[in-house]
UniProtKB/TrEMBL annotation:
This is Peptide/nickel transport system ATP-binding protein. It comes from Halorubrum xinjiangense. One of its GO terms (biological process) is transmembrane transport. Residues 263-288, 325-349, 406-447 are annotated as: Disordered. Residues 7-257 form the ABC transporter domain. GO terms for molecular function: ATP binding; ATP hydrolysis activity. Residues 406-415 have a biased composition (Basic and acidic residues).
């Protein structure tokens, strides 16, 4: 890797308007990508990882010019993509290729494999059919197929072979960047491994940069030099893949790594998320967007309870807010019977609610105790809104007030390099603090 990055993304935003009525009045915006910056170095594999809806595909499509950015800039080989026209635009389309999850989306069933792989060559001006055929045969062999496969049709191939054909189609025009959007999600484990090996081999052989988009940390671990972790349209952590995955600094990265679905929203074991619901990107949470689901949300400064009690309180609070409490903790005045044989207003009391949310013991902090008791009593009476308000008034975290800036990830113990990427979490640095670094601060510190 040397020289300037092949692709630079700065403060990229892609918002989709939500419209209503005949006049299509804009009533809101889905902030699919909301201020993302990164570089893809020549020949490197960069992974973007995050759960469904975090904005990975929108980022990938905007990088490729398939979506118009709402704000920010994408530069390819130093040139702003939005300003490319004519031949330069054509060259960009050749040099930056997309591989999608389902190869059937990329292959026309009526075209032979040879025609499909040759098509990009024809579009980009190679008129000599004999020469095209020779290139196609060569490329098919390089992706592990045979030159004779050119005369067959896509339906004659397995899923893995079809993905090899779409890789051949991308490779045939000598790209500098391949964007691979969940390229192996539809494949079984053995084939997945073969396709990842193939992508790795062609990346090294042809010095092509690959931007991997995946929800699967194993794919990223195996294939990427660096990783950027996305949550609700933002990058929350980035760095060398080995360091980030061995020693994640952001609670969200830790949750992804231990992503065992929890049926109990108050279960904080293993750093599981507080709530299962991903917030709506048209109305993201204030401050740190991860705070309602964060196992490490920062306690209010004046609260004097143990860390584990704080976790239970925060679990209680954000589960009430998300409407994800265990049934045993919510009274329903409309209903005659409750869960576990309780009758609403009879069996359910503040004490049963507190037991259900892991806060049965009296708290040492009198203000906290009063707030938890009041909220539990409100829930026992079926008044979720009152419980929500009481908890919000008593337990406001800095994480819901301040948006974290990207700061240097803590250095690995004993590591020679001081910096191994950035993390956006108030546990590591307050917004506007001296520690804050620019959002794309990984590029020059890691390589
Ligand atoms: N054309 C669109 N119009 C409105 N909202 C959209 C559009 N495309 C994506 N979104 C929304 O933007 C958010 C990010 O979607 P995106 O597909 O980029 O996420 P993702 O991380 O790639 O998830 P997945 O793995 O499920 O594709 C989601 O809330 C999605 O519903």
């Amino acid at each position: 890797m040397s020289g300037d990055p092949i692709c630079s993304v700065r403060d990229l935003k892609k918002h989709y308007p939500i419209t209503r009525g005949l006049l299509r009045r804009e009533v809101g915006r889905v902030r699919a990508v909301d201020g993302v910056s990164f570089d893809v170095e020549r020949g490197e594999a960069l992974g973007i990882v995050g759960e469904s809806g975090s904005g990975k595909t929108t980022t990938a499509h905007t990088v490729l010019g398939l979506e118009e950015p709402t704000a920010g800039e994408v530069r390819f080989d130093g040139e702003p993509v939005s300003e490319l026209t004519g031949e330069e635009r054509d060259a960009f389309r050749r040099r930056a290729q997309l591989i999608v999850q389902d190869p059937n989306d990329a292959l026309d069933p009526r075209m032979t494999v040879g025609e499909a792989v040759a098509e990009p060559l024809r579009i980009h001006g190679l008129d000599d059919a004999e020469r095209r055929n020779a290139i196609v045969a060569d490329i098919l062999e390089r992706v592990g197929l045979s030159g004779d496969d050119a005369d067959r049709y896509p339906h004659e191939f397995s899923g893995g072979e079809k993905q090899r054909i779409s890789i051949a189609r991308a490779l045939v025009v000598s790209p500098d960047l391949i964007v691979a959007d969940e390229p192996t999600s539809a494949l079984d484990a053995r084939v997945r491994s073969e396709i990842l090996d193939l992508l790795d081999r062609i990346r090294r052989e042809f010095d092509i940069a690959v931007l991997f988009v995946s929800h699967d940390l194993d794919v990223i671990r195996r294939s990427c030099d660096r990783v950027a972790v996305m949550y609700l349209g933002e990058i929350v952590e980035r760095g060398a893949t080995d360091s980030v995955l061995a020693d994640p600094a952001h609670p969200y990265t830790r949750v992804l790594l231990s992503s065992v679905p929890s049926l109990d929203p108050t279960d904080r074991e293993l750093g599981r998320p507080l709530t299962d619901t991903v917030p709506n990107p048209s109305d993201p949470p204030s401050g740190c967007r991860f705070h309602p689901r964060c196992p490490d949300v920062i306690p209010p400064a004046d609260l004097s309870v143990s860390e584990s009690t704080w976790r239970a309180i925060a679990g209680f609070r954000f589960s009430v807010q998300a409407g994800e409490l265990p049934e045993a903790a919510v009274g329903d005045p409309e209903s005659e019977t409750g869960t576990g044989g309780d009758r609403a207003g009879e069996g359910r009391t503040a004490a049963t609610v507190r037991r259900a949310v892991g806060l049965a013991e009296e708290l040492p902090d009198p203000d906290a105790e009063a707030a938890v008791e009041d909220a539990a009593a409100a829930l026992a009476a079926g008044d979720v809104d009152a419980a929500d308000e009481t908890l919000a008034a008593a337990f406001t975290s800095v994480c819901e007030r301040e948006a974290p800036a990207a700061v240097d990830r803590p250095a690995d113990a004993g590591a020679e390099r001081v910096t191994t990427g950035t993390v956006s979490c108030l546990r590591h640095g307050r917004s506007g603090s001296a520690e804050a670094v620019r959002p794309d601060g990984d590029a020059e510190t890691e390589n």
